[in-house]
Structure formats: C-alpha cells, structure tokens
Design a protein that fits this description.
- There is one protein chain.
- With 180 residues, the protein is mostly beta strands.
- The chain folds into two domains: 35 residues, no CATH class; 137 residues, Jelly Rolls, CATH 2.60.120.10.
- Helix content is 8%, strand content 33%.
- A six-stranded antiparallel sheet has the order 1-2-10-7-12-5, with no helix packed on it.
- The radius of gyration is 18 Å and the shape is globular.
Length: 180
C-alpha cells in the first residue's frame, strides 16, 4: 500500500490537496507520480524503472530490447477486460523471459522460483516487472479497466510452458543441480 495514501485511497492528511498541489514542478507530472518504485526484488524478479518523457500534452514511456530489458523483444501481447475475481497466468516458462507492465489500472503478480514467493502490485505504466525463465507466475486482483502489457523474449511456443506446478519444481531443481 502506498504510504502516502490513507486506507480509503485518498491523500493522507487533514485535507485533500488541490489540483495545483498535485502538479509537480515539471510539466506533465503529478506529485503522486514521484513515489519511489515498489520494492524491487523477490523470487528472482525485479522492478524495472522505465524511462519517462514528460510533456504537458501527455507523457511517454518507451521500452527497448537489450536496453531496458535484458532480452531481445520477440513478442508483445496484452490482457484486458479481465472479469473481477479472475486470475491469469498460473504457469512458468522453460526459456522465456518477460517484462510485465500495468499499462492501465493495476493488478498483482505473484511469482515463485521454487524457494521464494513474492507479490508485486503493479499500478504505474513506467514500472515493469522482469520475470526470468523458470519462474511460476500468477496474475490477479485486476482493477476495472486494467491492461497488462507483456513483452516476451520468445515467440509463442506451447512446449515452453510448465502448466503443472510439480513438473515446474522438478525442472527448476534439475536446473539448479538439486537432487530430489
């Protein structure tokens, strides 16, 4: 939860700021956008702070392969109109790496590398979550109108998926040289 917001989601403090109070000194930015990035690591994943070009007419964020993500971008897809209470993901990849971005709205990403589980709440379009290969992921808690943008290191291939958690754990242990 954002430490600058009350549980109701309104700015903390005795009164709500005016629209002028919400504007930062830099054109096109709101003070609320200057929050520090979410905690950056967990289960082998990390938050990537993406470049922001601010402009009073609207802001722009861009992502370049092998620059902002440690892979060449081979596929881009997005999830949208996810019904309330539904979740997505529930799998891991053998070789594929991803960057997951909340292009609109917010959602949670729960990642599991077989020994650690971490939850990331994504709600800013200029923060992405890097998910390396052999990491189980589940997405849920989608806000109304949210859009989950995913950049992937490989084109789609069903043979790259682990859809059974126990098979994923066995493969993860083999990759790490752990014997059962």
């Amino acid at each position: 939860m954002n430490p600058h917001l009350s549980p109701q989601g309104s700015p903390a403090g005795p009164s709500s700021p005016t629209s002028d109070d919400r504007r930062s000194a830099q054109p096109g930015r709101r003070v609320t956008d200057w929050n520090p990035p979410p905690e950056g690591n967990g289960a082998g994943c990390r938050i990537v702070d993406l470049p922001r070009v601010t402009d009073p007419r609207g802001n722009l964020t861009f992502i370049e392969g092998n620059e902002h993500v440690p892979f060449d971008i081979q596929r881009v897809y997005y999830l949208y109109d996810v019904p309330g209470g539904e979740s997505r993901g529930g799998h891991a990849h053998r070789g594929l790496e991803q960057l997951i971005v909340a292009a609109a709205g917010s959602f949670d990403v729960i990642v599991d590398d077989g020994s650690e589980v971490a939850r990331f709440h994504l709600n800013r379009s200029y923060y992405g979550l890097y998910v390396p290969r052999l990491t189980w992921r589940e997405l849920g808690n989608f806000s109304t109108g949210s859009v989950c943008l995913v950049l992937a290191s490989q084109k789609y291939g069903e043979d790259d998926y682990f859809r059974d958690y126990d098979e994923f754990i066995v493969a993860r242990n083999v990759a790490q040289g752990v014997t059962p």
